[in-house]
Amino acid sequence: MKKYVIFLIALAALSGCSDNEDSDVSDAPAETTVSEATTTEVSVPEETTAPEVTTTTAEIPEETTAEITTTAAEIPEEITIPAVEKNGYTYRVESDGVVCVSGGIDVEKLYTDCTELLRLAEAYGEDPAELLTIEDFDFDGYDDVFVPETIGTPNVPGKYFRQVPEANSYYFGEWDELNGIGFLLNTDSVNERLTFYSKGSAVEHEQVVYEWEGSAIVPVSRELQYMQETEIFIDSYEYDGGKEILTGRKRVLLGENNEWLGTEDVPLTD
């Protein structure tokens, strides 16, 4: 009887162990499957989204546009050239005049006596063409030519030739208006005026300012410095309808060593 009871207990124990093992085996795969599925779905898509594509697209057009704009803005300033080069002239001085050269071709000759100019240029070791004055004397946008008869004098005499645009070509003609003055004039392109300086001595000199009225040149003002007895005076004149009017007089004040101290007004008398 005892042996039978022991057998039943042993059988019951074996049956319990078998149930536990089945339970352990069936639980394990479920946990593994859930864990692997969750890990696989969460990690892949979100981290591979790349923001770099958006950044690159935004930077490229801005840098390219800026470079093109800067280059286009700088071109006109770099290629700006003086009017005399733009008109295509260089000059060669010969004994009987000045030759105008364009594109290596002699296109015109300005006839005037240049023998003294060539002699002085050789004596000073200068290129005679460098002694010409190329200026826009009538402020029309085209450079004109002044050919000096001599150099190294206070008042430079010479001959003027005006450049005249005609039918898309250019030529020079003798300039009667300025040749009537006959001396080199200084240009003031801002106020479009010409000034003639005449120096007679260390004390005496004259300055005349001109402007253009159409094709005629007219005086605007004149200043005359002169000595009277032992004093130096400066008279100022203006022009009205061609008539010269004295508008002021100053006395020059000198120091003990004849240094310039200034001026004082002198009353005008009738």
Offer a quick outline of the entry.
The chain is α+β, with helices and mostly antiparallel strands and 270 residues long. The chain has helices at residues 2-47, 52-78, 83-86, 115-124, 176-179; strands at 90-94, 97-102, 105-111, 133-135, 144-148, 158-166, 169-174, 186-188, 193-199, 205-213, 216-228, 231-240, 243-254, 260-265.
Total count of helical runs of at least 4 residues: 5
What is the helix/strand order? HHHEEEHEEEEHEEEEEEE
Strand order of the largest sheet: 8-9-10-11-12-13-14
Task: Return residue spans where pLDDT drops below 50 for at least 5 consecutive residues.
Answer: 1-51, 53-86
Helical amount among residues, as a percent range?
25-40%
Strand content: 35-45%
| Cα Rg | 50 Å
Class computed from helices, strands and strand pairing: alpha+beta
Strand count, sense and closure of the main sheet?
A: 7 strands, antiparallel
* End-to-end C-alpha gap: 174 Å
Number of domains: 3
What is the mean pLDDT?
A: 76
What is the overall shape?
globular
Strands, total number: 14
Task: Describe it.
With 270 residues, the protein is an alpha+beta fold. The protein has three domains: 2-78; 82-184, no CATH class; 185-270. Helices cover 34% and strands 37% of the residues. The chain is built from five helices and 14 strands. The strands form three sheets. It has a seven-stranded antiparallel sheet with strand order 8-9-10-11-12-13-14, with no helix packed on it. The protein has a four-stranded antiparallel sheet with strand order 4-5-6-7. Strands 1-2-3 form a three-stranded antiparallel sheet, with no helix packed on it. Strand 2 (97-102) and strand 3 (105-111) form a beta hairpin. The longest helix has 46 residues, at 2-47. It starts with a helix and ends in a 5-residue tail after the last strand. Mean pLDDT is 76; it is low at 1-51 and 53-86.
